[in-house]
Amino acid sequence: MTLKRARRSEVPPFRALSILSEVNQRIAAGQSIMRLEAGQPSVGAPEAALDYARERITRDPRQGYTEALGMGPLRVRIAEFYQTRYGLSIDPARIAVTVGSSGGFLLGFLSAFDAGDRVAMAAPGYPAYRNYLKALGLQAVEIETGPQTDYQPTPELLDRAVAQNGKIDGLILCSPSNPAGTMISPEGLKALCAWCDANGVRLVSDEVYHGLTYEGPAETVLRFTQDAIVFNSFSKYFAMTGWRLGWLVLPEDLCAPVKALAENLFVSPPTLAQHVAWKIFDHTDVLDGYVATYRKNRDILRTGLEEAGFSGLSRAQGAFYFYADIGDRTDDSAAFCARLLDEAGVSVTPGLDFDTRRGGQTIRLCYAGPTTDIEEAVRRLKAWGG
């Protein structure tokens, strides 16, 4: 007898994580691999924040549940961060601490959209958006972007998408973006917020890579609208990937629904991670030092890629990625990445993760590793040739 299996679970694997697993196995077996595949810092939380966590464990080994939306002092601290970084006054009651930004996506999408709703997103874009939408019974409307718009949507592209596909209910933005590392200007964000307001579209802004910028700070959509759902994370700028903690800034009409969903789906975010997060705001000087290293890595990798014959690189104004066009070499990026790993010992992610239609001609490269690894990766890329 064959038992029912939900179609909502039939989403493709995240290739970057599959490659990460394979690379871990190869390194464990003694292979030398230069890692440009996984979107995570090679450093961790500042030592002083970890010392604080050790102190909290000693003081209270039980580390029981917190409130479903996170510890009150941490929510206040996040609100203070918005005042310091953006000059914005955010009510801590609008902030929900989540189990990573991934848990935030689930809470945000469930609170804002019903099954069958249509949510637009840029292609290329973070694949989990598309797969979350599918698993929740929502329809992804992918907007094809390119270097002419810095791989970001514009009101004109949205108008065209609506004309071709019909009304949309939501729009996901990501600036700085994954996979291209490109940013939407404040003027561009203002125009997109106005477009959403005029068309009755719920704006969802992924600001996970804020803080990781190299040519000026990123702007938040909260400057231009109070109706958007804003996602952020302690994984990227704060270098706390494995602690699995993020946050939402919610419009007032979604605060109660998200609280009820969080209570039922997650009970509470990880307690010890919240203590580290509370303390880490005291050490942004260390985190900014990490950003200086990423900037150096970016410049080394860009020069090296150009010298190795890679063209069509994204501008990489933020995050820690280049998106590269390899259409002059192949239309099978998965095979290309497999050869690069086997023959040169360099791991990168095929663009098929981010763009199901055109991703066979692109790759993503992450430069968040140690500078010596970026330099060695460049040497190998030049010697390999492809």
Key features of this structure:
386 residues; alpha/beta; Aspartate Aminotransferase, domain 2; globular
Structure notes:
This protein has 386 residues and is an alpha/beta fold. It has helices at residues 15-28, 47-59, 72-86, 100-112, 127-135, 155-165, 186-199, 252-265, 271-280, 284-307, 333-344, 371-384; strands spanning 34-35, 95-98, 118-123, 139-144, 170-174, 202-206, 229-233, 246-249, 311-313, 321-325, 346-347, 349-350, 362-366. The chain has a seven-stranded mixed sheet, with helices on both faces. It has a four-stranded antiparallel sheet with strand order 9-10-13-12. Helix 5 (127-135) links the parallel strand 3 (118-123) and strand 4 (139-144). The protein is globular.
Number of strands: 13
Please, how many helices?
12
Task: Calculate Rg over CA atoms.
Answer: 21 Å
Mean pLDDT: 95
Relative strand content: 5-15%
Helix content: 40-55%
Gross CATH architecture of the largest domain: 3-Layer(aba) Sandwich
Distance between the termini: 49 Å
Q: What's the CATH topology label of the largest domain?
A: Aspartate Aminotransferase, domain 2
How would a textbook summarize the main sheet? Answer: 7 strands, mixed
Residue windows where pLDDT falls under 50 for at least 5 positions = none
CATH superfamily of the largest domain: Type I PLP-dependent aspartate aminotransferase-like (Major domain)
What's the domain count? 2
Name the overall outline: globular
Task: Decide which structural class fits the backbone.
Answer: alpha/beta
Provide the CATH top-level class of the largest domain.
Alpha Beta
The ordered H/E elements are HEHHEHEHEHEHEEEHHHEEHEEEH
Strand order of the largest sheet: 2-8-7-6-5-3-4
